[in-house]
């Protein structure tokens, strides 16, 4: 085979190991929302995750991204299997347990498998390092999502006692996901003006 293979052929036949320098690992997809509405799902015991879900909803509204807030009481497998992008905000209570509003979801949905290969998500896990099982429910939920094929946009963000840095990191990640949407809309608008 000559040196100048078309790219599609190189991809088809592959290349011997070590024939080109290792490329940096790339995420499965870009860090961006697609133009579907974003589902914001929260599980909260004392209201912190609920308030953060509302703040995230406002943030997306400001960025021109449609979103819908739902609590874990209303969340079911069918909703997740038909969603393309979800932001989860969940706390841990009792001894590393889920909030009460996530009880049915835990017992009915998380004990089974689901088809979540189409799902991209971000997860904010609220907890307190003073408890033995830090962010227990957030970690269990994350493991279940991944085991069922869902793809995280970024590693789970864990929040110790409402730590401001971790919360800033969450909002920055949401802004990064929304930025291309905002840029795309601005671009479409300017194209319309020119036309
Ligand atoms: C009774 C009680 C039990 C808790 N148990 C845990 C726990 O096991 N692990 C943990 O990481 N955080 C635990 N926390 C901390 C909460 O997860 C944290 O305060 C969180 O911000 C609460 O969010 P929420 O208001 O949305 O429920 C507990 C808090 C309370 C009041």
TrEMBL record:
Keyword Flavoprotein: yes
Keyword terms of this UniProt record: Electron transport, Flavoprotein, FMN, Transport
Source superkingdom: Bacteria
InterPro entries: Flavdoxin-like, Flavodoxin/NO_synth, Flavoprotein-like_sf
Keyword ATP-binding: no
Segments forming domain Flavodoxin-like: 38-175
Entries under SUPFAM superfamilies matching the protein: Flavoproteins (SSF52218)
UniProt-recorded name of the protein: Flavodoxin domain-containing protein
């Amino acid at each position: 085979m000559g040196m100048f293979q078309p790219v599609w052929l190189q991809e088809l036949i592959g290349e011997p190991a070590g024939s080109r320098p290792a490329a940096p690992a790339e995420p499965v997809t870009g860090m961006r929302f697609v133009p579907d509405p974003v589902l914001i799902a929260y599980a909260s015991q004392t209201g912190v995750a609920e308030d953060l879900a509302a703040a995230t909803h406002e943030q997306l509204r400001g960025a021109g991204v449609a979103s819908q807030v739902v609590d874990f009481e209303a969340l079911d497998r069918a909703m997740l299997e038909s969603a393309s992008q979800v932001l989860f905000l969940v706390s841990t209570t009792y001894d590393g347990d889920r909030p009460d509003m996530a009880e049915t979801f835990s017992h009915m949905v998380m004990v089974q498998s689901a088809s979540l290969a189409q799902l991209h998500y971000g997860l904010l896990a609220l907890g307190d390092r003073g408890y033995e099982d830090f962010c227990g429910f957030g970690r269990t939920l994350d493991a279940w999502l991944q085991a069922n094929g869902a793809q995280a946009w970024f590693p789970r963000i864990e929040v110790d006692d409402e730590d401001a840095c971790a919360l800033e990191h969450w909002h920055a990640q949401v802004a990064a996901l929304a930025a291309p949407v905002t840029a795309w809309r601005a671009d479409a608008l300017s194209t319309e003006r020119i036309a």
